[in-house]
Amino acid sequence: MADTKREIERKYESANSELPDLTGVAGVAAVVDQGVAHLDATYYDTGDERLAASSVTLRRRTGGSDAGWHLKFPVAPHVRDEIHAPLSDTLPDDLAALVRSRVRDSELLPVVRLRSERDVRHLLDADGLLLAEVSLDTVRAERLTGRGGTAQWTEIEVELADGGDPALLDKAEKRLRKAGVRPSASSSKLARALEETAPGKRRRTAPAREPVTAADHVLAYARTQRDAIVELDPAVRRDAEDAVHSMRVATRRLRSTFKSFGEILDRTATDPVGDELKWLAGELGLDRDREVLTDRLKAALDEVPDNLVRGPVAERLHSWSSAEHRGARGRLLGVLDSRRYLTLLDTLDALLADPPLLKAAGKAPRKPIAKAVRKDFRKVSGLIRRAADLEPGTDRDAALHEARKKTKRTRYAAEAAEPVLGKPAKTMVKSMKALQKLLGEHQDSVMARQALRELSAVAHAAGESAFTYGLLHEREEQRAARAEAELPGFWEEIKDGATDL
């Protein structure tokens, strides 16, 4: 079973074979020698080094106190999430799943071997509690692919203890700099090993050129969303907070981009990909929609006086929520391991590498991009007017839901347009986000009432009172009515925003 920890550390270049004295660092009462550990790590990657390109490291290490498999994902500068699994001859299935969105069908190969002599010190406070671990690593690197090169260096690592104060790292760095030690130019041992053991001169990645054409801007936004899907995949598999929602939003943004900018990217090529993105968003939504409904119904129940709660309403809501979560969770993991999903990722890569450009793609960006945003806005306007002409009920609910979807699409188009159109696009994003929130309140009420009717029927069949479900249903109707009443005035305030585009 894999365990996860947040690793906060800094690396330094060192030409010396000894650690600088850190006894005087503020807050450090003692520096305790932990001896020397002998570490032997083999790093795995695809032949084209996809993991390294994403600053992800996968290794099998023996020696030291944490022998086993380690998978590290970047979080922020000097911060990584490390997932550890027990030592085994082959890569554990749960770790293999976490790199699948990047690796796909490619084979994971041993690419680098690092053997290190690690001289370890513990920095302790006055109570003997661990503040940080400092090590002097003498590293020997051997490339295991191609013609295979070797390298050797010495570096210092300072790793913060779990729950430690990051300010300690600044204090330790100040002392290290005074001793002539400088921050490492490489983000990790693997990055340095790949650089220094590469056969011949390692090719450097050319800096990305600034967007010039309409297609440049649209594709830059689209690639950002594609990257987000790939990068969020491991977090979704680990059930990290907000990961499902964020991945769903990236999926919707990408699909909306293909639809909104159909005069730049040929929709005969992008529509089939958009259909697959719609499928993925739907699968992600099964779990997300449950979360939203559960939070809403729990909050509504908390507002009901105790004397109006009849029967085990909270217990039934909890059971319903848990069952829905288990079913949706298992289904979603199956989706992420499916051939259909991996094919979608491959198709996105191919489409964005060789995009289906139309005539407007090569034009200066302002006119075609502004035109696309205005077109989406007009669709929202038409749907709002249509909903206003309908009587309250199912048809109006459906029209407002459709307006909400088009509002999201307009918001995403305006996001893509911000680098080109500036403030008018930013204003449009803000307006559409507010409108989306109002229409979302209405749609959430529609879905909550549907769930309450289902829960009420189950409770009634079990011989329980349905009174509280009916009370909650009535309150949800009132919330929807308030949103509908607020909409006309709200729309009047924002509908002129498109004139500046």
Automatic annotation (TrEMBL):
Chain positions covered by the region annotation Disordered: 179-212
Q: Which domain of life is it from?
A: Bacteria
Cross-referenced InterPro entries, in alphabetical order?
Answer: CHAD_dom (IPR007899), CHAD_dom_sf (IPR038186), CYTH-like_dom_sf (IPR033469), CYTH_domain (IPR023577)
Which residue range or ranges hold the CYTH domain?
5-200
Q: Where is the CHAD domain?
A: 211-496
Quote any Pfam family the record assigns.
CHAD
**Could you identify this protein by its name?**
Metal-binding protein
Annotated source species: Streptomyces cahuitamycinicus
